[in-house]
Design goal:
mainly alpha
Length: about 550
């Protein structure tokens, strides 16, 4: 009976792959194209009038300049800090290198807006814990730091985007053929000379790639600029786009559209520029031989450098997370931090409050559905890319990459314009539009993970099953899926975690019944209750850290967020 209802192998294969491609075209390509088209639409036809109007405003022009300026400065500072840290952790005899590596990557796992909440608690000019402590200890007449400034914004952005550069550079350093450095040293060059004349030039592609990731991440960020920048009257493109959309008028949407397309063009121009630059030269750092990086002895500088690195790890990770934890236990923010002023009632009140638990459950459901659908589509896209020789097989992978490289705020606005009923499909303020947004943004993570695993499965296994009479679906179920199951689970988690705490898209796409934990945290911190925000931030952190531990366990340490 089973045979009666099964489809012929080739038909089933191409049918499901065609569905996956169609989903990508409908939810990724069409919204982007429509967004660009709408940015040129005026009442009299088509023109660049929307751009003239939007950049005729000094606020918007300043927001554009701020976005470029902050992105460039954060990128420069991140690379300048990340390279020496990666080199010290990967290529020297620095003590506790494994612990330092974990700490430097930790901020990659922390939602940026949670980090922004932490630094407002530490460096608020009137009530910041660190400012109050410094005023008391040093006898100062006023707080030495103000987080609500351009320098405060750049500081916080750097702390939470630096891991992009650190991860890219440290991985390349670990894989680099050490024979080139050894040849330099044998020729009489000092370790410092070898670092600047051999290691640094060879690491240029990784440094550039890390820098581009930081630049795009900073330019696309909303949480940190909204929590730190807006109170200090510092606007960037993402905050202006959200402001225009919240106006709810046709004029506001037109101007938001023009700003969103500008942001998308900047991001794509940076990516294209990086690709073109790397394509002109050849950077070969991995040979065929099994290599083990040489370890540089820091000599008398070993412990002074360890002290400096420890201080950075404490300030960038331990201090902000400790601040959130302490705030979550405080009874009254107007009283000093003492054991008498601490309680667990804040935690009990949050856990028993349905208004807080509903967004938490929504985020679980939305992230779970998005991760599951992404995993299914990623499996089909990866199969088409790795296991077939069909013309155009790279197109779905390219579409997934396009979504991943597009700023989240641009994706959200494109989905609002396209799926608000104008084309017969109204998803606005529903859970579906949030799921679609998360899928467009994070699908590429699952595709990359599953594709890498599929390349390791020899084609002969699939051919043997098909030759024995098994259908393609049965071959997929009984042969391929069991072999790549760890990567499938890893891909699921890589979509689930950022979807769970996502804010930038959610702030535009959520409805009255679909509020997410990211939106709730932003509202609590901005308008209502910093203590409850701290409790929920700790809950989010615990969930993310536990999920990351599960992911590392499943992938045997090969994959983590």
């Amino acid at each position: 009976m089973d045979k009666k209802f099964s489809l012929p192998g080739f038909q089933a294969k191409w049918s499901v792959i065609a569905i996956a491609v169609a989903v990508l075209v409908i939810f990724t390509v069409l919204p982007m194209l429509y967004l660009v088209l709408r940015s040129f639409a005026t009442e009299g036809g088509w023109s660049v009038e929307n751009y003239k109007v939007v950049y005729g405003s000094s606020v918007n022009l300043r927001a554009f300049v701020n976005t470029i300026k902050i992105s460039l400065l954060v990128t420069l500072i991140s690379v300048l800090i990340a390279f020496p840290l990666a080199w010290l952790v990967g290529r020297t005899n620095l003590p506790a290198r494994g612990l330092f590596r974990t700490l430097f990557v930790a901020t990659y796992m922390i939602p940026p807006y949670v980090g922004a909440i932490a630094w407002t608690q530490l460096l608020s000019p009137n009530t910041g814990y660190l400012n109050e402590w410094l005023v008391h200890v040093l006898g100062l007449s006023e707080a030495p730091f103000d987080i609500y400034t351009m320098s405060g914004l750049i500081w916080c952005m750097t702390i939470f985007h630096l891991p992009f550069a650190f991860i890219a550079i440290s991985r390349a350093l670990e894989k680099m053929d050490p024979s080139l450095e050894e040849a330099s040293r044998i020729s009489g060059a000092s370790p410092l000379t070898t670092l600047f004349r051999v290691t640094l030039p060879l690491m240029f592609p990784s440094i550039l790639a890390g820098g581009v990731l930081v630049f795009i991440g900073v330019g696309s960020a909303f949480g940190i600029p909204a929590i730190i920048g807006m109170p200090g009257q510092i606007e960037v493109l993402t905050t202006r786009i959200v402001t225009y959309v919240y106006m709810g008028t046709g004029k506001g949407i037109k101007e938001a559209t023009a700003l969103a397309v500008s942001l998308m063009l900047v991001a794509n121009a940076i990516l294209y520029g990086m690709t073109a630059m790397l394509g002109r030269k050849e950077y070969v750092t991995i040979g065929g031989k099994s290599t083990r990086p040489g370890i540089v002895d820091l000599g008398v500088w070993k412990w002074p450098i360890t002290a400096v690195v420890s201080l950075y790890a404490f300030v960038s990770v331990v201090l902000p997370m400790g601040s959130i934890f302490v705030t979550s236990l405080i009874k009254s923010l107007s009283r000093p931090i003492t054991f008498e002023n601490m309680t667990l009632r804040n935690w009990l009140a949050v856990v028993q409050n349905d208004q807080y638990m509903d967004p938490l459950i929504n985020s679980f459901v939305l992230a779970g559905v998005a991760a599951t659908l992404c995993t299914v589509i990623a499996l089909l896209v990866s199969y088409l890319l790795v296991k077939t020789r069909t013309k155009g097989r790279k197109l779905p992978d390219g579409l997934a990459t396009l979504g991943g490289a597009t700023p989240s705020i641009v994706i959200a606005l494109a989905l609002i314009l396209t799926f608000s009923g104008e084309f017969g499909l109204n998803l606005y303020s529903t859970m579906s539009i949030l799921v679609v947004g998360y899928m467009v943004k994070y699908l590429t993570m699952a595709v990359r993970t599953i594709s890498a695993s599929l390349t390791q499965v020899h084609i002969s296994l699939e051919e043997a099953a098909l030759s024995s009479g098994a259908s393609w679906l049965r071959t997929l179920k009984d042969i391929l899926l069991p072999l790549i199951s760890p990567s499938i689970v890893a891909g699921w988690f890589l979509v689930f975690m950022p979807s769970f705490y996502e804010l930038t898209m959610s702030i535009l796409l959520y409805g009255a019944k679909t509020k997410t934990i990211g939106v709730l945290l932003y509202e609590l911190q901005t308008y209502a209750d910093p203590q409850d925000a701290s409790v929920l931030a700790m809950v989010v952190l615990l969930i993310v850290l536990v999920s990351n531990l599960i992911l590392r366990k499943i992938s045997k340490g090969q994959i983590s967020i």
